[in-house]
Amino acid sequence: MKVFSGSSNKPLVEKIAKQLNTSLSPLEIFIFPDGERRIRAIDRVVGQDTVVIQSTSPNPDTAYMELFFIVDALKRSGAKSVVAVVPYLGYQRQDHVFRDGEAVSLEVIIETLESVGMDKLITFDLHSIKIPELFKIPIVHLSALPLFAEKIKEIIGQGAEVAPPGRGSPRPSDTILVSPDMGGIRRIKILSELLSNMPFVSIVKDRDLKTGNISSSSFDTESPEWKKGVKRAIIVDDMISTGRTIVSAVDLLIKNGIEENLIFATHPVFSNDAKNILQNSRASKIFVTDTIDISEKGRFAKLEILSVANLIANGLRN
Ligand code: R5P
Fold first, then answer.
1. Where does the chain hold its CATH 3.40.50.2020 domain(s)?
2. Per-residue CA distances from 273 to 261, 293, 301 (Å)
3. How far is CA 212 from the centre of its chain?
4. Ligand 1 binding pocket, CB closer than 6 Å
């Protein structure tokens, strides 16, 4: 198996290669003065199984074009198969028509990847569980939730793991899992199971599709029982982009008397001023993964990055 890397997340690719005990195959990525890219596979790949790893943030359009060209270069050079590892699959939030007249961007991306010859996709924590149905080729949908569960156990201590099942029931745990919107409820249920049925609640979030403005004003239960004895909330989301969902969730939880708020999100998209918004928010700590590379400059004191390299290496071994 030959492993190739796009240019969007080299630190993660190097960690994966180390886990696989392999070295990366060289690619020539030449950027013309006008920004166009020329891609060339240097090693012979005739009849070989190949893997290309490329995340699609930041700069999703450039990252995708590079990925299309790498897959095309490998297929044209006679590769037997091309597995694309796309830890963060950009455009996944536009997976259907929300308002009349819109393009389904994700479908266009998938069709292009399939038509250039991608044989299989490995990706992480997709926004919707329906996305895999859009693919004609096999897709391996990995999750960072087991990684989060381990970290949460470490933080709250082993004793707090033994919460009895059921929402609002008396429990020794002073911690609750929180989904910042109803769309994340499935994710939170899986994490709850990984944490011996830790209680959970979901915030009801509204987003204005025109302005992008967010309001988190209530919870999916009217009974105040779930708050009893809760001192710490763990907010879990698939991605953080502008940071507004998180800030609005934390503010609502603090208003409801929960002082310590820890954030776990798989994909650190971190657009615009997210770094400062998150650092200056009332969240206690923010855990993300390295599905998207965050430069030294983009990091901040409250941020901790957990690596998915091991999970991807295991996915490639199977
Ligand atoms: C939305 O449904 C997603 O799960 C995230 O909550 C959202 O994309 C985060 O975006 P932002 O950080 O811009 O609020």
1. 2-142, 145-307
2. 21, 16, 15
3. 20
4. 127, 180-181, 183-184, 214, 237-245
Distance CA 125, CA 96 (A): 18
* Ligand 1 closest atom vs CA 239: 5
DSSP letter (8 states) at residue 271: -
What's the sign of the alpha-carbon dihedral 219, 223, 226, 232?
positive
What tens digit of pLDDT does each residue of 94-106 get? Answer: 999 999 999 999 9
User: Ligand 1 centre and the CA of 248: distance in Å?
Assistant: 11
CATH class as words, domain 145-307: alpha beta
> Which residue's CA lies nearest to atom 14 of ligand 1?
245
Architecture of domain 2-142: 3-Layer(aba) Sandwich (3.40)
Task: Provide the pLDDT confidence category of residue 197 given band limits of 50, 70 and 90.
Answer: very high
* Cα of 314 from ligand 1 centre, angstroms: 28
Q: Mean pLDDT of all residues in the chain? A: 93
Helix, strand or coil, per DSSP, at residue 286? strand
How many CA atoms does the CB half-sphere of 282 hold within 13 Å? 15
Tell me the average pLDDT across 141-156.
97
Give burial (CB, 10 Å; 0-12/13-18/19+) of 291: buried
Angle at 210 between CA 208 and CA 211, to 5 degrees: 70
- Between the CA of 68 and the centroid of ligand 1 the distance, in Å, is 27
Q: Is the peptide bond before 172 cis (omega within 30 degrees of 0)?
A: no
Structure tokens at 150: 């381990």
In this predicted structure, the answer to whether residue 164 has a pLDDT above a threshold of 70 is: no
- pTM across the whole model: 0.93
Nearest to 267 by CA among 148, 144, 164: 144
Measure CA of the first residue to CA of the last residue in the chain; give whole Å: 13
Beta-carbon neighbour count of residue 28 at 10 Å? 10
d(CA 293, CA 8): 7
Name residue 240's beta-bridge partners.
268
